Amino acid sequence: MTSNPAQGSALSGIRILDLTRILAGPWATQIMADLGAEVIKVERPDGGDDTRSWGPPNVTDDSGKDRGSAYFHSTNRGKKSVVIDIAHPEGQRALRALAKSSDVVIENFKVGGLAKYGLDYESLQQVKPDLVYCSITGFGQTGPYADRAGYDFLIQAMGGLMSVTGQRDGTSGAEPMKVGVALTDILTGLYAVIGILAALRHRDATGEGQHIDMALLDVQVATLANQAMNYLATGKSPTRLGNSHPSIVPYQAFEARDGHVILAIGNDGQFARFCKVAGMPGLAEDPRFATNPERVRNRGALIAILQGVMSGRTMDDWIARLNAASVPVGPINDVERVFEDPQVKSRGLRTAPIDSEGAMLQGVASPLKLSRTPAIPPKAAPDLGADTLSVLTDLLDKGEFDINELQAAGAVVLKGNQQ
Q1: How far out from the chain centre does Cα 20 lie?
Q2: What is the dihedral of CA 53, 54, 57, 58, to 10 degrees?
Q3: Which active-site residues does the annotation give?
Q4: CA–CA dist 222, 295 (Å, integer)
């Protein structure tokens, strides 16, 4: 195991060489950084990770200094930034040395894209047999689409998610819709972490490394969950239902007197309690609505009745009454209201991470709460090349590498010298 200053954290002692950019890969490495792994993010000299320029909006620190795009900060906290030219032979040599001293390499280049640099799994396995190497692509390392570029929006469409997201056909605004965040990328990042942790467990038990092949399309199909099984069970493709649920009723948005609330009734007992609060206890005894399967079959009739009732009270009135009766209900918050929610505040999800120079920024906390090995205190995403000198000084063999020569050759760029 390699050394790491985050002693006592779950992944203390794990070093990750991060050759990813945009979202799926950086999301995976951010999670592992939260858990104490040392993540060395390798960025190109001409601007670094693409998302550094994906603004506005940009983040400012407590002194008012612009620290780059909010998008970049959303997925790169807790990492070290090293600028190395992957196309330069000396840059490749330095990267191979960094890989040899790392536990994990993670990359999201096109299939075969790193082989010409000697940075693919087969090449690095020769210098470090116990290396865990994770590749993230749109379609995987094999199959007829392997050479295609894959993006979240495209995969949400091809993987079926958009076919079940959006208003039902025949209603206003009906069309397939993407999710409001790049969910396939996020889910792929999560699965990549699971795969990496499993491979590290295997390495610790056997001394063997391995290659992890993660594909956005695979993840999207796998996470269709009940919708996929609904098709496999019936042979019928699920359709868009707006905010309704295909298998649970009532489980959707309703319009109250002054806005919308979500009613998420998951069992017959909750439905009976709802009917009592709504002043219609007999509705729960109606054979058409007494059980969830009957409510699904008679969805149209029930929703028409409930919408008429729900519109008679305010959002706050419904939320107070139904929560008191243990009926799941809640408002549809915009993001401002999310961060003002007392539960969100209590859980500490809004943070003020500090960067390597002591400046304070705004940020979002890790949701992982481990009693023995909690996530480390949040550290802000790094400036481009902020750690090039320190990482190379610490990890490269001084007998084999001269950092000044690497810089003069253009193989690496120290902070302040980026193009």
Answers
A1: 14
A2: -30
A3: 185
A4: 28
90 Cα distance to chain centroid: 33
Structure tokens at 320: 């107070």
Question: Where is the domain boundary, 278, 303, 337?
Answer: 337
Is the pTM for the entire model greater than 0.90?
yes
* Residue 191 shares a structural domain with residue 45: yes
- Angle between helix axes 268-277 and 315-324 (nearest 10 degrees) is 130
- Which residue range is the domain that position 275 belongs to? 251-337
Q: Where are the beta strands (DSSP E) in 92-191?
A: 104-107, 132-137
User: Is 127 among the domain residues?
Assistant: yes
Residue 8 lies in a domain: no
Which of 314, 337, 360 is the last residue before a domain boundary? 337
Looking up residue 276, the CATH number of its domain turns out to be 3.30.1540.10
3-state secondary structure of 169: coil
Q: Which residues contact 47 (CB under 8 A, 6 or more apart)?
A: 53, 384, 418, 419
CATH of the domain at 179: 3.40.50.10540
DSSP state of 116: G
**pLDDT tens column, 183-237:** 999 999 999 999 999 999 999 999 999 999 999 999 999 999 999 999 999 999 9
